[in-house]
Amino acid sequence: MNIILLGPPGAGKGTQASRLEETRGMVQLSTGDMLRAAVKAGTPVGLKAKAVMDAGELVSDEIVSGIIGDRLDELGAGTGVIFDGYPRTAPQAESLDAILTERGRSLDHVIELAVDEDALVERITGRFTCATCGEGYHDSFKQPKISGVCDKCGGTEFKRRPDDNEETVRTRMAEYRAKTAPILPIYEARGIVSRVDGMADMNDVAQAITAILDGR
Ligand code: ADP
Ligand code: ADP
Ligand code: ZN
Asked: Where are the alpha helices (DSSP H) in the chain?
């Protein structure tokens, strides 16, 4: 099964993708995570992407579609994939079709996480992750059970993204509205879009997604 989690920054895509990895053995392909890794490693892609990401704008379609294709090739044919943060533009949606077809895959579901824009700034500015395993947390909505210790791996170092500030979030929301939301009709026409209330509690969102994937 191959699915897309679609929603604005802070909608909960990463949170839900990581749960699906645990519960279903699917693999999350996050272009944001891949780009951040490239920036950290100082690769040619990373060098190109850094300033664009810091500004909250979109990296070029060629770059992100290239890295998605490469990552898919590393996975077994039977491994289900969750696309998180990709596609984000109409050309990327077209590329994804080609990338999947070339590999004998197809899209089963596009799950739209619907959230109030007002809530997104609070979600993004409170977001932090474990520096060791990447588990996601939030200052108000999901603190580690033991303060300062990662629930998942016991790590004690955490980090925040340089682009998770209010100003950049506004740009990222505008990019979403202008370039990403317009790709929904492409998938609606295929009858594969389901809408989930992303304002609900994380566990309820996870349950709603599971019900969709199970065809309930
Ligand atoms: P995205 O990947 O869509 O940008 P994240 O999954 O990283 O979003 O979530 C953004 C922040 O909001 C994180 O700090 C996360 O812990 C928190 N969060 C995610 N889902 C919910 C939810 N349903 N309710 C409250 N906070 C949430
Ligand atoms: P969020 O969790 O807030 O949705 P991401 O981690 O997905 O953000 O993306 C962070 C940044 O990486 C984006 O603001 C953009 O600069 C870049 N990026 C990630 N995915 C894409 C993509 N599919 N197309 C273009 N740029 C992307
Ligand atoms: Zn951890």
From this structure: 13-24, 31-41, 44-55, 61-73, 90-102, 117-125, 166-175, 184-188, 202-213
- Which pLDDT tens digit goes with each residue over 130-149? 999 999 999 999 999 999 99
| Total-model pTM | 0.96
What's the rounded Cα separation, in Å, for the pair 102 and 80? 16
CA of 194 to the centre of ligand 1 (A): 19
Quick check: is 161 catalytic? Answer: yes
Please write the tens of the pLDDT for every residue from 174-184. Answer: 999 999 999 99
- 19 catalytic residue (yes or no): no
Residue 134 Cβ contacting ligand 1 at under 6 Å: no
What pairs with residue 138 in β-bridges? 127, 142
